[in-house]
């Protein structure tokens, strides 16, 4: 992971704190949780060294691969993460796969504490038959595809159908709907990948239905995203008035955020009835759960989806969807399931609860495992915006600092930290990408993007990223 | 030459009955305002005293510039507020959430929909909450105290949103 000649003086200066007697913490995962945890720790103690390990050569996790291309302001957090990574007591090791290149056990031996911040890379399955048909995707893969996640490069969704059905009504579902229906003129000025732009240019999709198990009062998306749907050019909102009939009485008792969102949806129902037809449409469908994805005549590709009709038991945020026994079929050429991301176990020595798919913990302290902590989605579950993860990461950092102060974490023992791990990696033929090396990738992506009027043109292959990093 | 209306508005703004203005060429109200800002830099009459209480209850008093946003104040004065202003003032987050005093809140310019949309996602939302990036410092705010939601020491004590 040695950089070019100009890096040597920096390396020497850094090594002095890296081999010093202060606490050394290792963070697994270079996304928002990892960087916010690092930020808090570095600020709290001026003898603290923090190493951030990331599987990909590029940092920033879902800020890079999850946030929609047409939400560039949300990505401004990258600036604060960059400052953290450039801190003289912070080291970034990209291209290191914790779990295969180095074990969590080895990290625990080398550091005073290890923080797991590796997020949720998988997705919850609908667990219905037909889920494996062509034309059925998880939102996680679809988003990864238009955002340039290397493992989704070959997704090749065919957008040659008129109707897309999205299961789930969170902000990810709305992001997907919006990308499917946005004018290309807007999208081509964003950092959306070129191959997604090419596919969208040939898209025949005109109608997107966003389907949820429960009712309007339980919808998980937030008002800004709903407004964006309403404001889509040449796109009508196609809501069912019946879905909102019993809602108005409940309005007055709702907390303001829920009330405003509900009012906005109801206003949409009113204004859209009797309007002239736009070329495209989007709409919510409530009280429907997927039962089966239906194949077309060739038996290989989706042609529709069978939905169970639900009713609500209880009210408010805790209302439960209960099947009525009735079903309904919707014709569509693509199904996207947006029902949640899911964390995976990283290492046998780390406790993992398969039911909730998180690392069992007590306010960030991993249960029954001294010196191990967690922050972000792997700690709390895969919901919330960047700010939620930020607060959560600060909570974990505070817990860790408290344990350092109380002596629960034994700082009297010197730990080798990154020096030991780098040596191990070298033995195994693994070469890490340093932060300055990521910055070379960054510059090249920005250069390529500028040439075509975009903020950046992302590399889609790890090998291309590495070639630039180590050039 | 300086137009009479310009000098008048300048002196009104500076609250001085007479104002000796040595200006080269002030053609408009807008330019006068810009000049006022640079005059304020050295004048004490445009500084506004603000008190910030951070998540640990620590209070810091700063002298802010009229016209700055509260986000700018927090950043420029390097106030120790964790994770403030993540989206850098673009209404894409709620981390510059500030809680105001009753008497101050009601005098503020009402919120636009875009601000309320993001504010409604804020941790520890109250009826006296605003987003700091959307609030500009004005002279009448002199002496006010703003705070961020207090640190939750125990997860079980999570503050319920009051709105």
TrEMBL record, chain A:
EC number: 1.18.1.6
Alphabetized InterPro entries for the sequence: FAD/NAD-bd_sf (IPR036188), FAD/NAD-binding_dom (IPR023753), Ferredox_Rdtase (IPR055275), Ferredox_Rdtase_adrenod (IPR021163)
Annotated positions binding FAD: 33, 54, 62, 98, 377, 384-386
An example Gene Ontology CC term for this record: mitochondrion
Pathway(s) of this molecule: Steroid metabolism; cholesterol metabolism
Binding site for NADP(+): 169-172, 213-214, 225, 384
Keyword S-adenosyl-L-methionine annotated: no
Main location: mitochondrion
Main enzyme class: oxidoreductase
Keyword Transport included in the entry's annotation: yes
Key words, A-Z: Electron transport, FAD, Flavoprotein, Mitochondrion, NADP, Oxidoreductase, Transit peptide, Transport
GO molecular function: oxidoreductase activity
Names of the cofactor(s): FAD
Catalysed transformations (reactions): 2 reduced [adrenodoxin] + NADP(+) + H(+) = 2 oxidized [adrenodoxin] + NADPH
Domain FAD/NAD(P)-binding: 24-180
Localization in the cell: Mitochondrion
Region of interest: Disordered: 1-20
A Pfam family reported for this protein in Swiss-Prot or TrEMBL: Pyr_redox_2
Similarity comment: Belongs to the ferredoxin--NADP reductase type 1 family.
Full protein name: NADPH:adrenodoxin oxidoreductase, mitochondrial
Organism of provenance: Pygocentrus nattereri
Lineage: Eukaryota, Metazoa, Chordata, Craniata, Vertebrata
Gene name of this polypeptide: FDXR
TrEMBL record, chain B:
Keyword Electron transport appears in the UniProt entry: yes
Entry coiled-coil feature ranges: none
Gene3D superfamilies registered for this protein in UniProt: 3.10.20.30
GO cellular component labels: mitochondrial matrix
Keyword list, A-Z: 2Fe-2S, Electron transport, Iron, Iron-sulfur, Metal-binding, Mitochondrion, Transport
2Fe-2S ferredoxin-type domain mapped to chain residues: 48-152
Cofactor(s) needed for function: [2Fe-2S] cluster
Domain of life per record: Eukaryota
Any GO BP: cortisol biosynthetic process
Family statement drawn from the similarity comment of this UniProt entry: Belongs to the adrenodoxin/putidaredoxin family.
Identification of the protein by name: 2Fe-2S ferredoxin-type domain-containing protein
Species the sequence originates in: Pygocentrus nattereri
């Amino acid at each position: 992971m040695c950089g070019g000649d100009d890096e040597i003086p920096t390396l020497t200066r850094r090594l002095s704190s890296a081999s010093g007697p202060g606490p050394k913490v290792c963070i697994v995962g270079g996304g928002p949780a990892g960087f916010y945890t690092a930020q808090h720790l570095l600020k709290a103690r001026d003898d603290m060294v923090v190493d951030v390990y990331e599987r990909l050569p590029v940092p920033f996790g879902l800020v890079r691969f999850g946030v929609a291309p047409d939400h560039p302001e949300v990505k401004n957090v990258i600036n604060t993460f960059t400052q953290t990574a450039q801190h003289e007591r912070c080291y970034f090791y990209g291209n290191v796969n914790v779990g295969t290149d180095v074990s969590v056990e080895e990290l625990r031996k080398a550091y005073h504490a290890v923080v797991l911040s590796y997020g949720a890379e998988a997705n919850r399955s609908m667990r219905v038959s037909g889920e494996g048909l062509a034309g059925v995707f998880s939102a996680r893969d679809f988003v990864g595809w238009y955002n340039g996640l290397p493992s989704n490069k070959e997704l090749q969704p065919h957008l040659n159908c008129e109707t897309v059905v999205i299961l789930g009504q969170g902000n990810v579902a709305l992001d997907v709907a919006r990308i499917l229906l946005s004018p290309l003129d807007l999208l081509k000025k964003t950092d959306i990948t070129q191959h997604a732009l090419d596919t969208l240019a040939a898209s025949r999709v005109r109608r997107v239905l966003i389907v949820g198990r429960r009712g309007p009062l339980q919808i998980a998306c937030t008002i800004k995203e709903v407004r964006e749907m309403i404001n889509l050019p040449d796109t009508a909102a196609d809501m069912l008035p019946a879905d909102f009939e019993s809602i108005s009485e409940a309005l007055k008792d709702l907390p303001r955020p829920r009330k405003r969102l509900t009012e906005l949806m109801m206003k949409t129902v009113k204004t859209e009835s009797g309007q002239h037809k736009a070329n495209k449409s989007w709409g919510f469908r409530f009280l429907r759960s997927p039962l089966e994805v239906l194949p077309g005549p060739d038996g290989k590709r989706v042609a529709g989806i069978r939905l169970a009709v639900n009713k609500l038991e209880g009210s408010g945020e805790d209302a439960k969807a209960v099947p009525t026994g009735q079903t309904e079929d919707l014709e569509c050429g693509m199904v996207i399931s947006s029902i949640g991301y899911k964390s995976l176990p990283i290492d046998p020595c780390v406790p993992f609860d398969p039911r909730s798919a998180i690392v069992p913990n007590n306010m960030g302290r991993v249960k029954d495992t001294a010196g191990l902590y967690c922050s972000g989605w792997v700690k709390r579950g895969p919901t919330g915006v960047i700010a939620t993860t930020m607060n959560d990461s600060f909570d974990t950092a505070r817990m860790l600092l408290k344990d350092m102060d109380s002596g629960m974490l034994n700082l009297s023992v010197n730990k080798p930290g990154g020096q030991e791990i780098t040596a191990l990696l070298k033995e195994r033929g693994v070469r890490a990408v340093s932060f300055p090396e990521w910055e070379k990738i960054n510059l090249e992506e920005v250069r390529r993007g500028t040439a075509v009027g975009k903020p950046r043109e992302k590399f889609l292959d790890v090998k291309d990223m590495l070639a630039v990093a180590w050039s | 030459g300086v137009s009479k209306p310009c000098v008048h508005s300048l002196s009104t703004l500076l609250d001085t009955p007479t104002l000796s203005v040595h200006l080269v060429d002030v053609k408009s109200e807008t330019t006068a305002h810009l000049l006022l800002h640079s005059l304020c830099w050295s004048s004490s009459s445009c500084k506004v005293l603000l008190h910030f209480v951070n998540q640990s209850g620590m209070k810091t008093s700063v002298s802010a510039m009229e016209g700055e946003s509260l986000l700018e104040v927090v950043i420029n004065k390097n106030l120790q507020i964790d994770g403030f202003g993540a989206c850098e003032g673009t209404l894409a987050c709620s981390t510059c959430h500030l809680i105001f005093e009753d008497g101050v809140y009601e005098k503020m310019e009402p919120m636009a929909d875009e601000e309320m949309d993001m504010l409604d996602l804020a941790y520890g939302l109250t009826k006296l909450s605003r987003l700091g990036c959307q609030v500009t410092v004005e002279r009448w705010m002199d002496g006010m105290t703003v705070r961020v939601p207090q640190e939750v020491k125990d997860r079980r004590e999570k503050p319920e949103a009051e709105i």
